[in-house]
Each structure stands twice: as structure tokens, then as C-alpha cells.
Amino acid sequence: MAAPRPLSSVPDQPARKTRWTDAELMAVDFPEPRWAVPGLLCEGLNLLAGAPKLGKSWLSLGLGADIANGDPVLGGIEVERGPVLYCALEDTGRRLQRRRRQMLAAGGRAAPLLTLETACPTMAHGGEALLCEWLDANPHARLVIIDTFAKMRGADPAGMSAYAADYAAAVRFKTLADHYGVPFLLIHHVRKQSAEDFQDTVSGTNGLTGAVDATLVLKRARGQADGVLHVTGRDVEEAEYAMSFDATSGAWTKLDGPAADYQMHDTRAQIKRFVRDYPGQKPAAIADALQLNPNTVRQTCTRMAKDGQLRAAPGGTYYPAEPASDSDSTPELSHLSLRHSTAPDQQEQE
Q1: Domain spanning 33-249 has what CATH number?
Q2: Model pTM?
């Protein structure tokens, strides 16, 4: 086998046009972007971040196997079949075998077009050449998964700022993704601190999220969903997807309907208990204390006040609902009184 070659030695493709007049630009018929998962993973560099042990590796391995077979991913999204490279750099062959056997025992299929790699040098010390070798040998590749980004990025150059180092490390992968026109997916971690913008939870600086084409953050939901997948990017529509995990098959499924429908499943009960213990709080403070999405809490508080479960006060603060008096006998108030008589821990559907 010929020695793997770095990207710099790959034969040049025809030069891409980079300048147009406005009229010329409007007349160009650009090809549609290539999708590994339509609406979710597009060509270019994608970053998937989540907390440890949340199931990112199960998710990425499942995506790789399904795309390699051309099977619907996440429970129903149609994809185009093609070779997939999955660099599971925090796993051993035995662990990967156990996971694949678990998937197959639950009804999955063997994936001949899926290549599994458990050892890869950093980008500057042979990793880039290894990826180029595989991509050269698989011109119809659909996806490259790096699990994890930290294992392959290598050491930061001396004297470079953290922002510049994060940007440069990500751009090295993006250069390959753009050169070959293949979607890359980097698996990464989130920081411990919460943030209102899900992109700010990604570990590292804004140089990392600024360099990638799309950012996906998998968070654990507090309702029926096992996770919520937040997505934003240059070619993807910003969205939130409720996700469910089947521990038997190791498979993630995208649930129908807005993620908020699943996140709000037990939100009212949490807010009601918190306001009872700490009356006079604003939604932002409630969200911060409960580690919930501020927009979700604000909307839920408004609805709870409308339904008589909370009392809204001037200034945007909330208090426990005042008990109905004996003279309140209208059908609506009687209905609300009945709702209040349920156990505080009972979870109510929105």
C-alpha cells in the first residue's frame, strides 16, 4: 500500500471561481449541497457536543451504520447510501464489537461500507494523511466521524491565543471536508456551566464554533424525551429536536413535534414547587435555579398564571396562586380548584 499522503500533496482539483459581478453571480447554477442527513448534517464541518455519558457515541455510531447501509436514520429520515469512516478514538475494538452486536441483536444490519478505526494520530502527525488516504480510496464517501475532536486535534502551537488555536484546529478538518465535499462530524464535549445560548455551552472558545459550518448540541431533557438536539449552522435551519434513546438497541430516535412539548412535560410541577418555596421570582431567576431554558420558563409561567396555577405580580414576578374563596363558584374557577387539588408531584402535560 502506498504511503498516505497529506492534503498538500493531493492532486489539485480545478480552481474554484471565487469572484463574480453581481449579474454573473445571479446567473450561476450552483449544485445543491451534499447531505449526510438531510436537514441535519450537510457537507462541510459539523460539530456535535454533549455531556459525557449522554450517548454521543451511540448516536454517531448509529448514524454511521445507517448511512453506510442507506437505512433511515433517527427513526425515519431517508439518507443516501455510501461509505462512512468512524474514528472511535476513545474506544477499543472489543467495546465497538459489543456495541455493534447489541445493535444487530435488536434488529440492525451489518454495514459493509462502514469503516471503524480506533487509533489515529493527531492531524499534524499523520492523522490528516490517514484521512486523505481513506477519502481517496472512497470517492463516494458520505460521512467522516471523528470521536473525539480532542483526541485528534493535537497540541496548540506555542504563543497562539486560545481563540486562534481553536479556530486553527477546526479549520484543519474543515479544509479536508471542503476539499473532498464530504460532511465531517466532530464529536466534542460541553462545559459544565449552563448558558442561554446553546452554542456557548460548547467546550472551548468561540473560535471553535465560529470555524465550523454547523453546531449540534445534545442535551438531556427533563420530560419524556431523553435528549434535545439543538442545531444551527450556515446551511441548516436552526431548530430543536426532541430525541429518545433505546438502551436495548443503542438507537436514538427523533420524536415528532416541537422539543418544547417534551421539555415542558414536568416543567409546571418544578416551577410550582420553586415559586412556593421562593415567591416573588422572575422567570429568568427561576430558569437559572432550575437549569431550564429561559424562554420555556417564561412561556410556562405565563400559561400557569392564565390557568390560575400562579399569580403574576407587577414587575414580572410570580407568586403561588391564591386559594379560591368559598364565593367563587363559576364553572371555570371550580375547574381550576379541582386541578389544584391534585398532588404537587403529579406531572401535567402542556
Answers
A1: 3.40.50.300
A2: 0.73
